[in-house]
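Record format v2
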Amino acid sequence: MRDIFKGSFEDIFSRINIGFAIILLALGGLFGVLQLLSRTPGSPIKVSAATYYQILTGHGVFLAVAFTLFFIMGLTVFMSTRILKVDINRLLLKISLCMTLLGAVLAAVSILTGKARVLYTFYAPMKAHPFFYIGAALLILGSWFTAFALFLQYLKWRKQNPDREIPVPIFGLLATWIVWIEATIPVVIDVLKVYLPMALLGASVDVLEARTWFWFFGHPLVYFWLLPAITLWYYLIPKRLGVELFSKKMAKIAFILFIIYSTPIGLHHQLVDPGVDARLKYLHTVLTLIVGSASMLTAFNILATLERAGRKAGGGFFGWIIKLPWRDPIFSGMILALIAFGFGGITGIINTSYQLNNVVHNTSWIVGHFHTTVGTAVALTFMVASYGLLTELFNRKVIAYSLARIHPYLWVIGIFIFSMNYALAGLAGAPRRTYDLTFGGMAPEIWYTYLKAGAVGGVIFALAGAIFVLIFILSILVNKGEEVRIFKFGNPHENLNEKHSVIDNIKLWIVVAVILIILGYSIPLYQLYSQGLSLVPPVAKGL
Amino acid sequence: MVHKEETYEYIWIVIVAAVIAGLSVVMAYYGFALNLNPVCNATPIDIKEVEKLTPGVKEIGPGIYEITMIGQQFSWNPNRIVLKDPKRVIFKITSKDVIHGFQIVGTSVNAMVFPGYIGQFIWEPPNNFEGRFLIICNEYCGVGHHLMYATLEIER
Ligand code: HEM
Ligand SMILES: [Cu+2]
Ligand SMILES: [Cu+2]
């Protein structure tokens, strides 16, 4: 065990972050199961209402915010040091690690002691313990130091290789952290301007102001989760298959679309908010569809790569499909994640489709949507990538490999049963974020049918999650340094062009992104502030 | 020189662009030609003035109703609404404390409810809507969130 803390600082950093992320996944998953059972009609296991909303806050914060962030921090440094082969600034990484861990602990304490039953969206004027907001601020500001370290490392590489094209995975990581900076500036403004004065001084707040800054952050946030998953698909799938990615150019164009379009679209989360102009809602809807196209390019690129590999292995028109290495959990997990993302993408297009949002907003449809996106496209990709990291970063043999082979399939079967039924319940009007769906006996019978069927799926994928967590932890505890290198993450065999094109001009794309953000958000913010704020006092009771 | 594989890329990009353009036009048509938009109107209100509103139903014309609704932890006021042969319902909704969500199950009515603002929107219930409908709060508002519901009865 002790060897986890030996080796280069970069690797120790990655191990701490990824190990911590997996612990958060286990804890958040446990909360998920308790929620699932509590809200299923007729279930013998039911926590109290107060506990329900407390662990629901924990579920959202631990999984969607913290698990993803810590995993991405660890993964970034692991990949960038191996692919770029230039030093990264260790001081920045140390600051980053201390601040984010402290932030996570403060936020976790406020949630676990029941002082922050505000869910992970913490909408004002609900007021939580100051630790919750201070924790969030530390988590975000701390993560910026990892971003700076990566940017500096890249610039150093660029200096040594003035003309070389950027490797696709590095392009993906840069895009990830650029999107993160775009996303988090507005939420830092929100926390400093609205939430900390509210929590510390009891200052009054304007609900629309707080929400506008929040969703300015909330949408690019989801791309921060997604881009590393896409990066892993682009990087590891062709590597595993021994072919080149179908189109490097298309991959980079997809990343550029994410950089420039992921932010000026946040109003699609406020489609049913009173006080937001219809024309602006429509504008953000159209921009959202454009960023959706980046995902369609990604799907095409990966599928074309698969076909290329399958055909190379001698498969025919459809026969190439069976030639693929379906028994390898890293490969199968990533493809299944991509398929789940297809479902997530379609439900996402429906969410954003302006008038249709009325039908699905705040219903359990949304729960179906994000368990296929962040809950599978991202989480499953990270889980199966961890099998590779166990061998290459932690120097461990993956124990119970035969169980690891089943894990992705079990997860995806469970997720589909769960998400389909929750989506259908949502179409029938069943709300999300609800402890009990009886409503004095007036709830439609059909909700219960869907919720019960969904619970079966939930239990199945929770089981798959438990298998993964056990494999991960036991592999680390059982000290078998025998390396079964599956992928050679750290050995890019990409043929890099010695001449880069305008596509590799990241600075240009940042400038375009800033212009689009100004176009997308100047009018909403102008309208918000010019009509004057309507302040209301914070509310801590009833939480 | 264009490779065969690049042609596939371009074909795919054109398909994607066409889908986006198609969807955008349809939504714009429904939104701005047929005026089918989600709730957008809001007027600021001083939260201390909310006490002075009179929640309830007013018939302001034949089949035209105006409903003033106030949400608070954890109830709707009024919590029972009866409408006779409604054609047009104008909702004015606000909150006394935190954010709530106003949803009539089985209809397209779904709107956020903000303290500090009165949201206003119009609903034209289809002719075949009849009987009892469940009104719920669909935005988390505290530990009694799931207890916050009301009913709407439509008589024909
Ligand atoms: C381990 C198995 C899991 C189970 C059984 C589970 C179950 C659930 C359930 C039943 C809800 C809805 C609660 C409600 O709306 O009242 C929920 C919400 C949610 N889940 Fe999961 N989940 C699991 C894993 C995950 C994972 C891996 C992620 C993401 C990485 C995730 C992200 C979320 C988010 C963001 C919410 C919304 C929270 C909110 O509305 O405030 N879940 N989960
Ligand atoms: Cu979004
Ligand atoms: Cu509520």
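Helices of chain B lie at 4-33.
Chain B has a mean pLDDT of 89.
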